[in-house]
Design goal:
Blueprint (H helix, E strand, L loop, with lengths): L9 H19 L7 H16 L6 E4 L4 E4 L1 H37 L10 H21 L9
Antiparallel strand pairs: 1-2
Helix pairs in contact: 1-2, 3-4
């Protein structure tokens, strides 16, 4: 195994720690078990951050031999980055899923299993624009549920 060294400023190290927190959160969020590769790298970066006099943001857990962000730092980064991402991606995914449903209604289920033809792409863009406009105007109230 070869090793690499990089020199970073204290602020760059903090950004690296935030990046590691966010990436491991995204990778591990949908899983029952943690991704060990990401956890190992996260622990390595947090250990360096801890050594750099950042004990107010990182805590060492000797029983597990791991470093963890304290709750206040995690909450701050969740509010700053994850909540904003969730809000934007929710609307993008909702528009995409509702548009897919309309495309299936218009062209049949097989449309999802092949590349779209030019006229189908144009129709999809038209549907997406219509769905987005309706959601912007009415929010979730634009959706109805029929049995």
């Amino acid at each position: 195994m070869s090793y690499h060294s990089i020199e970073v400023s204290k602020e760059q190290l903090r950004t690296m720690v935030a990046s590691m927190f966010l990436s491991t959160w995204i990778v591990n969020y949908p899983r029952q078990e943690l991704n060990e590769e990401f956890e190992d790298v996260r622990n390595l970066v947090l250990a360096e951050y801890y050594k750099d006099s950042m004990q107010e943001e990182v805590e060492y857990q000797p029983h597990a031999d791991v470093y963890e962000l304290n709750q206040e730092t995690e909450n701050t980064w969740m509010e700053r980055y994850v909540q904003e991402y969730d809000e934007h991606s929710f609307w993008d995914q909702l528009i995409e899923k509702l548009s897919q449903k309309e495309m299936i209604d218009a062209f049949g289920e097989e449309i999802m299993n092949r590349p779209l033809k030019e006229e189908e792409v144009e129709k999809q863009l038209e549907i997406e624009a219509k769905v987005e406009e309706k959601l912007e105007k009415n929010g979730l109230w634009a959706l109805t549920w029929e049995d």
